[in-house]
Amino acid sequence: MKTQILKSFFKATALSLLISSSMPTFAQPTDEIIAIVGSSAILRSDLDQSVNELKHALAAQKREVPPEQILKMQALDQLIIRDAQLEQVKRYGVKVDEQSLNEAVLKVAEQSGHKSLESFQQQLDAMSPGTYESVRARISDDLAMQKLRQQMVMSRIKISDQDVENFLKSPQGQAAVGSQAHLIHLRIGGEASAEELNKVAQQVRAALKDSNDISALSKKYSTDKIKVEGADMGIRSFSEIPAELAARVSNINVGQTSELIPVKDGIHVLKLLDRKSNAQKAIVHQYNVRHILIQPSEVVTPEMAKQMIDSIYARLEKGEDFATLASTYSNDPGSARDGGSLGWVSPGTMVPEFENQMKNTAENQISAPFQTQFGWHILQVTGSRDQDMTKEVQNRMAKQILGERQFDSELDSWLRELRASTYVDIKDKSLDQKAQEQEAKNKDN
């Protein structure tokens, strides 16, 4: 229950709550510390604010609001988990880049009818000076925690090649990649006993292995008490086939029949006549690329890095060997060992500046020096090709789906572990669930 409310809160927090919770407040003389989390403190006013936010979030979802004391304990636990994550953000130095932060703040601004950050800032600061910076800081914290959770949880998710293969063979996987099946579907039903129905169903299944004539099979095996009927289902996507039937044919070969499928209206059996993969291929134009990278460092200033790349470029123009210069000078150890080779590169795998230069450099020509976030580069495209990447695309899609399935459970586990490993001292024992449980246990004894 506690985790569900926590998830719902993050999903349902409205703009007004974000703004109200970010407006500058000053601790009242009667304010007090109710919990210590790591190196931070939670005040009574923080708890009151969080309780109000939870009430609004639950009301917005039309969910029942728990009793006040339970709500306070849940709100406090939520604050503890938030502070514990922020402690980890500081520990691991998780940073949010300015562009991502501006985009996130602009989305919030647009929800309130503003088209620019400037007008949004003017409105908030007119309400109370400093509110805009507080809103911005809170959004920055949320983005940093999201980035932290993504890094921590994804590192816990393990998806093997066998997991991917099994998924792609499953009905869900077949539906996801657009596979189709041509099926014959027969049903054996009637007023006969279960034993008699099963006996006839076994006979029908055996006959179906050698015949696709539904009419002949129905005529041969139907009796006064038993009715055999069926249909050619035609070519259908796995997403269009009922899940309980799709599961029976996802692992059989063309020409084979399924096991008998007993359901309320009789016994079903399927035969797979044909299987078709998605005709749409993922053809990707790839580039065979090698590069030389010069990075600024503690001993190499940005100016020196630019001078070095210009010097290397001049030597290349005079005819010196690219691979030799890459092996000698490049700061990319992975490619330098292979003469600067990055192998076959697909669009979308490199930073935009590198990809743009790669696409606009003629084969066997050497680019002029250009800069990315990693430093100064020179690249050469030694070839290009159209490559069928359908299998790789399907594998990536399968890993993404399997990862999303595991993410929530792994996130819950990580948050519980984080909560358990974080130093927490709840000063107000009426809000300490463990203390309450221990007190109740002592009374029972």
UniProtKB/TrEMBL annotation:
The keyword Isomerase applies. One of its GO terms (cellular component) is outer membrane-bounded periplasmic space. PROSITE patterns: PPIC_PPIASE_1, PPIC_PPIASE_2. Residues 178-274, 284-383 form the PpiC domain. It catalyses: [protein]-peptidylproline (omega=180) = [protein]-peptidylproline (omega=0). GO terms for molecular function: peptide binding; peptidyl-prolyl cis-trans isomerase activity; unfolded protein binding. GO terms for biological process: Gram-negative-bacterium-type cell outer membrane assembly; protein folding; protein stabilization. Residues 1-27 form the signal peptide. Chaperone involved in the correct folding and assembly of outer membrane proteins. Recognizes specific patterns of aromatic residues and the orientation of their side chains, which are found more frequently in integral outer membrane proteins. May act in both early periplasmic and late outer membrane-associated steps of protein maturation. It holds the Pfam family Rotamase_3. InterPro entries: OMP_Chaperone_SurA, PPIase_dom_sf, PPIase_PpiC, PPIase_PpiC_CS, PPIase_SurA, SurA_N, Trigger_fact/SurA_dom_sf. It is found in: Periplasm. Its main location: periplasm. The keyword Nucleotide-binding does not apply. Keywords: Chaperone, Isomerase, Periplasm, Repeat, Rotamase, Signal. It is an enzyme of class 5 (isomerase). It comes from Acinetobacter stercoris. The PPIase activity resides only in the second parvulin domain. The N-terminal region and the C-terminal tail are necessary and sufficient for the chaperone activity of SurA. The PPIase activity is dispensable for SurA to function as a chaperone. The N-terminal region and the C-terminal tail are also required for porin recognition. This is Chaperone SurA. Its EC number is 5.2.1.8. It comes from the Bacteria.
